[in-house]
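With this grant's support, we have paired protein sequences with backbone structure tokens. One protein thus recorded is set out beneath this paragraph:

_____
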Amino acid sequence: MQNSQELSLPSMGCGTWAWGNQLLWGYDESMDEQLQSVFNLCVSNGVTLFDTGDSYGTGRLNGRSEKLLGKFSQAYQGVNQDNICIATKLAAYPWRWTSKSMVKACQSSAQRLGRNVDLVQMHWSTANYAPWQESGLLDGLADLYEQGLVKGVGLSNYGPKRLEYVYKKFSERGVPITTLQVQYSLLSTYPVTELGLKDVCDQLGIKLIAYSPLALGILTGKYSETGPFPKGIRGLLFRQLLPGVRSLLECLREIAASRQKTMSQVAINWCICKGTIPIPGAKSVEQAQQNIGALGWQLNASEIAELDQATGSADKKMVQNIFQTR
């Protein structure tokens, strides 16, 4: 049976991928009230697209990110309540290779959320390492749409060639692709400038979602070359990147000052001006307020050109996702 529901996609998302990382590293239940406040603030200010994944909060946490998001959406009562859009990504685990396994995975996500998934996405393509696995997974996504279990389907970390392949495959079944999610920011322009994904998405009627629009926090201006740095691999990455992006950060800082905005708000607004839906993470009310401050205004053409030039001349770029296909 063809899905007759239409997915109304909000103009900006509040990405829960950051919550997922927090769940994996030191989450405890004392954070629930704080995260509920973040959720409430976002929705009341018109930020109603929330993106998560069934791999966020694995092991003993057992999909905790989806459980929390479901809990928060059920508890919220107020303006924009009916506009909340829940998107989740299903991981291409090696033990998932049939269409039924994807349908079952989405049903499990819906159970954890306590509601149907609005937008279901393939978290990554297996084309780079196990191309034989992907066909069944894609069939499962199409089945979910045809059975009316989701309002829309999307992809994540797909390049233009693979995207066009899936688009053709889905078109034969009358299944539209609503979104494509890629790593995109002032420090990660590769999917657009080198792969040309935005042009392809525009041609196919697909909305481009930008994850990690603040480049893991580098574009917030919070970190300097002398430290302190985050712990672990992220800290090592920052040590390598910061000296090479000095001119970009200075350009971002100057525009933010002239606009009376923060560097984060300018970086997110740049993504919006490029025609994408940025999904910055928010683990505190202060971070959510920062994200919301990126809405309701636009950088002018001169400012965008300055940032583009600074980005193009930066000596360092953000490391690309290993699953990104061409």
Notes: Residues 256 and 262 are 5 Å apart (CA to CA). The first helix runs from residue 17 to 24. Confidence is low (pLDDT under 50) at residues 16-26.
